[in-house]
Specification:
The protein has four helices and 14 strands. The protein has 239 residues and is of the alpha+beta class. Strands 2-3-4-7-8-14-11-10-9 form a nine-stranded antiparallel β-sheet, with helices on one face.
Length: 239
Amino acid sequence: MKNKYNKNCYSFPLLIASLLLMSSCNSQVKPLAEATLALENFDFNTNVSSLLREKDKSKEYENFWNVKSMVIGIDTVFTDEFDDENRKPIRLDYRPSVYSARDKIATFGDMNFYAINMVTTLDNKIMVMSGSVPEVSEQEVKTFVSGMNKKHGDAVKTTDDFFGPYDIYTWKLADRIIKYCVIYDDESNVLKIEVDKEKKSLKGVEKTPHYKAYLFTINNKYADQVIGKMNTGDLLYCK
């Protein structure tokens, strides 16, 4: 019995160490400029400074970071944008101003994102992480929703309207809310032009209607402060 007892005693701390190692492996510790961000199991305790480093700050523009081909900037959000005397700061929004489809910034399962948004408290606690896909097929939407339903139960599907109706799929998990917003873009507000450098000419290009998708993973602690209350850029689709 003595040997058996000693064997169990030594295995317990090893088990704890293994669990801690597994937990640390799941956390995002590498900067966005060097590694692809995994959003599916994102650790909301991640430090913003580990994602956006001082060395990646733009040399030309204040409060902007260069992350691969994406340029992301920080903006303070106030209670009332139009009342300079009485407004109070309530959170920080990090939004992309430039990005390219050649660089993958984040993933969620098999979905790739080329731009991200991040929302934090004034003391840099992460409230929302978001990724956007400029073009996605109807089949890709169905595949993603089906896979999420299998993992987390059937989504609550709602519809909102912003220059046209769009679908919102919502899954509520123990520590977070995931929203997947799908917008149909008929490119009615897009001017597409093809440039021929040799002939030095321009000509119109046929428009290609498609879907766009926005995914939000929201820290449950702050859900009431952000859902339906963000009104700029990609973030306004989070309803």
